[in-house]
Design a protein that fits this description.
seven-stranded mixed sheet, globular, alpha+beta, 171 residues
Length: 171
């Protein structure tokens, strides 16, 4: 396992789009976001995110969108070479802390119902299933549902759980 002291979290920049798209492809294959899609998202005023770096190498990122008093994780990826080392959880902890710092009330995301590792991470952290979109993600064996998840961010806990690292999942 990688300790939090070994990782660095930095804001996502438009200049990061090529590296983010490459990492996204490594994690999701042909269903990955392209560089123009990542760049278009980063150009939106209500979209930003965090990159997770380990030994100065991009290991993962979260791209978030502010929507009224809530936030949504648009995409979230850890490079396969860095998976199963606790980095996904560290990135999620930092993303949630950033959402709290932004005073969002809820954090939403969707995940393919066949993505067992992601579901373990999100449900284990405390996300709740709030809906389902049947046949949303295409697969060779037939489309699978997207599970809609949410995490409540009570305002009273903002000061006690916000770490002192750089933040950027904000608008």
């Amino acid at each position: 396992m990688v300790t939090p002291e070994q990782t660095v979290f930095l804001p996502l920049l438009l200049a990061d789009a090529p590296a983010l798209a490459t990492l996204h492809y490594s994690a999701f294959g042909v269903q990955a976001w392209t560089e123009p899609q990542v760049a278009a998202s980063l150009r939106q005023p209500n979209v930003s995110g965090l990159q997770l770096r380990l030994d100065d190498v991009l290991a993962g990122f979260a791209l978030c969108q502010a929507v009224a008093e809530d936030g949504e994780i648009l995409t979230y990826a850890v490079h396969p070479a860095f998976q199963r080392r606790g980095l996904g959880l560290q990135l999620l902890v930092e993303t949630v802390a950033t959402a709290r710092a932004r005073r969002w009330e809820k954090l939403f995301l969707e995940v393919a119902e066949d993505n067992a590792p992601a579901l373990r991470l999100y449900l284990g952290y405390g996300f709740k299933v709030s809906g389902k979109r049947p046949g949303y993600y295409p697969r060779q064996q037939g489309a699978v549902a997207a599970l809609l998840l949410h995490y409540d961010l009570p305002r009273s806990s903002a000061s006690s759980t916000t770490p002192s690292r750089p933040r950027s999942c904000s608008s």
